[in-house]
Every structure is written in C-alpha cells, then in structure tokens.
Amino acid sequence: MCCDLKRRFLLLYATQKGQAKAIAEEICLQAGAHGLEADMHCLSEMDKYNLETEKDPVVIVISTTGTGDPPDTARKFVKKIRDKTLPPDHLAHLQYGLLGLGDSEYTFFCNGGKTVDRLLQELGAQHFYDTGLADDCVGLELVVDPWIDGLWLALKEVFLLQKEKEGMSNDVSADPHVGREMNLSSKIQNLNLEDEGVRISDGPSHKLVDINVVASATDTEPSLVRSVPPISQSALNIPALPPEYIEIQFQDTHGENPHLSSLISEGTTFEVPVTKASQLTREDAVKTALLLELDIANTAFDYQPGDAFCVICPNNVSEVEELLHILGLSEKGENFVCIKVKQDTKKKGAARPQYIPERSTLKFILTWCLELRAIPKKAFLRALVECTSNAGEKRRLQELCSKQGASDYTRFIRESNVCLLDLLHAFPSCKPSLSLLIEHLPKLQARSYSVSSSNLYQPGKLCFVFNIVEFPACPTRPVLRKGVCTGWLAELVAPLLRANKDMVDINRESSPTEKISIFARPNNTFHLPSDPSVPFVMVGPGTGIAPFIGFLQHRQKLREEHTDWEFGETWLFFGCRHQDRDYLFKDELRCFLENGTLTHLKVCFSRDSSTAEVAQPKYVQDVIRLHAKEVARVLLKESGYFYVCGDKKHMADDVSDALLDILSIEMEVDKLEAMKTMAMLREAKRYLQDVWS
What we know:
about 700 residues; alpha/beta; Rossmann fold; 6-stranded antiparallel beta sheet; 20 helices; globular; EC 1.16.1.8; NADPH binding; FAD-bd_FR_type; flavoprotein
C-alpha cells in the first residue's frame, strides 16, 4: 500500500488462556508489512474504543471457555451488545471480521465467537470478511493462518471502497495486481476440519547444501529433529520474528514473594488444609484414582453439588531446576528479578504480562507463573531459531514453524505434546534468554475439578476425585511425566496415603497439615433439579462419577430432613475397567441403593471376561441402550434431567449418540427430529454435561 499515512483498523481480542491475544498480536505484527496500523485492545478495555462511533473496520479475535461461554474478558462487552433496548440498526455503520477459537471436543464449539457474531449481526453490523472458526482439537493454525493471509486483501477492499466514497482519486495501492485482486472474494467462511481444500504452495524449491539437513539414504523417516524430502529441500515461508519487549534486571535475594492470590484474577482464593486422602483404586489398576478432602469450615467458600473449583498448582520442582540448569541460571534461582518493558521495543502495546509479578524470585516465576508444559506456538519456535547455533538444528526449527512444515508441526510438536524442555533437549544448541521465555510461555493455568461432596451432608468439607495423569516416555519425551497438578497433589498427600495403608493415625497437632489454594469456577449450571420430585439420570464412568456422589449425598440428607417431600427416581450408569480394581465408591453406592436415595444402579466392566452365555455390555452407552424405554420415559413423559460427566472423546459422544437413537426409536421419528428434541433438552438445561478431553 502506498499511502503516506498508514490506514488504521481496530483490533479487539478476548482471551481466557492467552491464545486469542497471541493471535491478535500476530495480526498486529503483520499489519505493518501491509501498510496498515492495528489499534489493538482487549474487549474488556471499553474505555479505549467505542463501536458506536467507530468508522474504521474492526477485527475481533475471541476464544470460548467453560461450556460455550465467551471468555471472562468479554463478559461486559457481551452484556452491552445483548441489551434488548438497542435498536436493530444500532451498529449498522460497523464493518467487522471475526475469528473464533474453540475446540470441537466440546459440544458448543466456538460458541463465544458465534455469540458475539450473532449479537453484532442483530444490531445491524456487517461483515467485511467472512467469519473463521479455528479448532484447537486439530490445530488452530489450520484455520488461523489462511484466515490471516486473506484478511489483508479484505481490508484493502474496505479501504478502497472508503476512498471511492470519499471521492478520492488516488489508488489504494501501487501494486499492479491490485485490480485483479479486488475481483477476488475471501473464501474463508467458517473454516473447520471439513475444509480440506486449504493448501499452501511451497513456492519455488531449491536444494539445500547443508549436509546436516538433507536426509541420508538410511534416514527415511522424519522425526522431531530430522526432516526428509520434500520439506528438507524446500524454500520456506517462516513467520516474521516477534519483536522482543521484556527486560529483566537481577537483584539481590532479600524480600518476599507475592501471595499466590495476587496471580489470580478469576475470583477470591482460599488457602485450605487437606485433611484426608485415600486411594480409591487397587495397586494393579490401570489408573490410580485419589480422593482428597479439604477443610473449608473457616472460610467463606461455598458450593453446590455439581459445582467445579480450581486448584492453583506449581510446575514440577525437578523440571524447574532442570530449566534453570539449561539456562545457566542455577545460581540465580533465589534472586529477585524485576520485569520491565523495553523502552525501545517495536511491539505495539507492549506490557508486562499481568500474571508475572513486577518483582519476585526467578524460581517463583518459573514455578508458579509460566506454563512450562505448554505446547510451543510457531511464533515461539520462530524466536528460538535466533537462539540456536547449530545450522542443522536451526533449519529444523525453521521448518517446524514454516507453512511448508505445518504437518510436521502437528505431528511432532502438537500431537506429541512436546514442551519447552523437550525442545531444549532435542536441540541442545538452542540457548534462549529468560526474557524470551517470559515473552512466549503462557500463564500457568489453575486446574479445574468437579466437587464430589455435599455441604449439607458434610458441612465444612469439600471432596474431589482425580486420576493421576501420566505421560509415558516416547521418542520426543525421554522420561515419564505426571500431570502438572495431579502429580503435585499426589506427592503432596503421599504421607496421608501411606498412613492410610499402614493404618496409622496421624497426630494432627504434631504433624504439619498441607494446604492448597483454591477458587470457585463461576457459571456452572451442572446442578440438581430445583424440584426434588423431578427424576434424573446420571452417567458417570470412572472418575466421572465424582459429582454424582455429591448429588446423592445431598439427596440423602434432603430425604432425611424432609420426610414429607416427594422425591423423583434416580438412575446411575457407572462403568470401569475391572470390578475388583477400579469400581469407585462401590460401598457408598450400595448404601445409597439400600436406603432408597438411588433408585437404579446399572454398572458395566469393560476389561472383565464374562462366562455368561449372553455377552455382557462393556460400556455405559451399551447399558443405556438396554434401558431405552425407561430413559425415554424419564426424559419425555416425566420431564426429567440427563447428566453426563467424564471423558468427552471416548464416552460422552457415544452416550449422546445412544440417547439420540433411543429418542428416535421411542418417539418413532427420524434422526433429524430426534436431534431437535436433543437440542430442546440442551436449551432447557435438562441435558447437561461436565466433560473433559
């Protein structure tokens, strides 16, 4: 673009975990190369922009959180544009393009972006560029990259039309191809997994002479550290180098680190003791499940059965020490560091990340603030290229962040769950600075868990259940790793677990009580029906049973306190691998069944061999099909509720399919009508899911 003055567009983002902001920053970075200037703000900064008077085109990047909600930073914005008193032409002057981020593992894919898109349309705003919906399940970059590539032409078209309306005669661009380009339309609408036509040209190829890069006759298989033709012989399109913007000053070792509560913006944090811990599975079970009890009696923390809460957890101590060693900063771990923005940075709107304290020890930052296990983004890989001295390693990092290396990035970085430490081991000549890590590593997120208790049944107590997550060693990960939070919690409560196994009564006064910091997770609708006479069905295999223990505890207490009330029937479908190894809460469920709190208990065991003549069902969805008429009766005739908790990919989708078949058969309608009924149940909050991937 040959304009003397760069044309401005408004760039807004709303992020929960930092991905939408990172993409907005990439758009902002690329804008300058196209002769444009991005005026970038978070949607929450409503005092810095005004859509009601905005004349320039608007680009919005927005993620989705929870069960399809816009991120916390978009709440006020959504509330404002949802105002029913606004006229339908309130934003008729506005032209915008929207990029939504989501995960198709979850039911309400990209619903944050779709919600904002719909509300803007209802207020008369017009698309200047088709909406893109990026899927984190398969890789955001599959949609994000081509969407950004097409954005610049769409913006040029807007500015050209603006100039024509203003009666200006000078052309928008000196580019001789611009006339031809203006006839092209942007075909990026709702890009997702089905759009297999998105392809990127390799451009002119040339053979590289670096013998470290070209695969030998025996190295025919690519890996994280090795490429093969054609990519090893291709010219590469790599991202622009992100500008540095963080400056670090090392100080002495005197002072105190900030309290963990200062790192959390989502709500009030509570430091609570862990009073009990027990292992729910046998030693030979495939997965180890633990039950922890927290004492919340002396806090204002409150919850309902079915609620979730978040645990603030640290990175693994040995991984922090290992990273310090690789960075050559082992002796500086206890030194305080002061984080500031470089005065001469070229990064627009640069600011110290809010989750990094202005002053704390280096070890505190690496332990509590940065997600060391995060899968590195391509922009991070691009920055690491500049820190790598070996030519072969440098080339491979360039390939992994290039357009031509998209499939290698997906295979060897994304799908392999490679983290920073894995990269530094694989590319030993890569020596990044501490400031680079702070610029590119995202915030260490608190981990969410379902409550497995009732405050009515156990006043002052909060229980939760989890499997200890394990990531086995593989070619890209030299050692077995445990989940960041579950591994830490398991180590934290190991003394309590040993005491339970040895039948030792720990003296609470003489032994220190471990404490963890928690906060409530808002906007959870996964609750019992407000009317106790309404029946409900619960589906929770494995640790998915956790919230339903709280449901049943609560129901039992209500039955004891209100003998004159009418209570609806309750169904629980539970499944696990082995009846004698991982049947969680077996005794408790039997008691609920015997005292009438639980009306029907249906269980299945996927790995146990059966001697019965008729094959026994292995999975909960199979058992649900066996009770099709009863399930349909509860939902259709008695206006009951249907709850699902557990693994999304390997259970919840199959349960949804089973219920769809049941509705179709029992209502004697086709699948389309059954899907409409399912949609009605979801809309009425009578089909509820608490699932994870």
